[in-house]
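Homework help board

Subject: predicted structure for assignment chain

Our instructor gave us this sequence and asked us to write out the predicted structure in token form, then describe one feature. I got the tokens but I'm not sure how to describe them. Can anyone check?
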Amino acid sequence: MSRRVAIYCRGKAAQTGRAAVDALRDVASREGWTVSGTFIDGAGPSAPEYDRVWRGITSNEFDLIAVPSLAALGGNISAVLAEILRMRDAGCELYVHDRKLNTTSAVDRTLFPIVEALKAVDDAARQEPPREARRKRASTQKFTPTPGQRSLIRAALASGLKPRAVAKSLKMPLGMVEAVTKDDGP
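My token output:
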């Protein structure tokens, strides 16, 4: 059975236009795919032709999307990963010309689980601030110890412990212990 392919170009590939489309048509011809439509969007944020491709996928006009590069699927890694998973969920195959990636083959079909794992990592990274940001935020917080905490800290420091050891033993933020060591007041 011949696969029905939608050729889609966007961004730089759309600007070079004819060359990218011709290269994808040559691949389709070699693979025995039937080109059911060619869609080209400009480099701007809107993608009306891509919306038409998806309408074709949902109405079973296409089995495969052929793109010149992964950049055609989105402007950032998250968007590309999301689109690849969307294709998998819709039962649509993907061919990426510059990477010779063809999910119609069993070997390249492993792309889908890999993308799913990468998407999970990307989503988790977006929910949790980077380690450096957490450290910076913690180091810029103002710690004001209570009078009771001040006396505990002073007593521990007087025993010869270093500020880090005092903070650990009293289970207090290091910034609070450092504030007491710098403070000459009661």
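Reply (TA_rk): Your tokens look well-formed. For the description, you could write something like this. The first helix runs from residue 12 to 16. That's the kind of observation they're looking for.
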